[in-house]
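Provenance

Sequences were taken from public entries as deposited. Structures were produced by running a predictor on each sequence independently, with no templates supplied. The record for mRNA m(6)A methyltransferase from Dendroctonus ponderosae is shown for reference.
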Amino acid sequence: MCTPGGTQLMEFCPHGTRLDCEKNSITDCKKLHFKKIIQKHTDESLGDCSFLNTCFHMDTCKYVHYEVDRAAQIHGNQLVIPNLPAVGRVESTTLYPPQWVQCDLRYLDMTVLEPNQPLALRVLGKFAVIMADPPWDIHMELPYGTMSDDEMRQLGIPQLQDEGLIFLWVTGRAMELGRECLKLWGYERVDEIIWVKTNQLQRIIRTGRTGHWLNHGKEHCLVGMKGNPKDLNRGLDSDVIVAEVRATSHKPDEIYGMIERSVGFASSEHFKLGLYYYNAREHS
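Predicted structure for mRNA m(6)A methyltransferase:
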């Protein structure tokens, strides 16, 4: 967990709460602990809520919930993150401020992004890397609209890249469709990233909200390559991310670091694009 200053990390104690830690440890623990949230309607005999801090009904849920025991934080034994530049970074590189456009991609004419168009029509240009989290139709009620399979196939993704990488998040039902879309858009699938989801207590999720036959505790991100992009950094990261689930459709922050390390800052022309961001300002 990041400290309020955002420059240090503190480890979570494997015992969970401070009370359990004191029962099972003879030394003073300097790691982070949780404390139970006990409300009038809470029935501790029921145990922990399956959804913990992602529960939609915390104001009425009778199961136990938790919060970080910030009052008891001890600032020793912190893991300081070294201030090192990203791989491939060139200090003279010009970094442009993030920008975002709110639109319906089904009706956006991607040809206006072509570099041979008049300057006034070159809205975005071409991109070295794209990350997309499409609203696949998973036959469930969701807090946002979804797109049909044919609408996904017909998206103008090919106009966004001449060469580069695409990171495409897919649901369980859309795994084969995602591979099909990559091929239709002109990409070769070169890798796949697995996000193993953990809950607030840093445990593997066993009761996910998705899945028809089994509860889904992971997500897949297909990695596609178009053309022969140069200056890519290889072999720096694992294909597995273990990270906590947060808001709906919020992908793990680790994926952004992986993308930065893959493409780097070798050129000011290495623009990066995110599609279907539900909080565009946060990760533009």
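The chain has two domains: 8-80, 105-283.
The CA atoms of residues 11 and 31 lie 5 Å apart.
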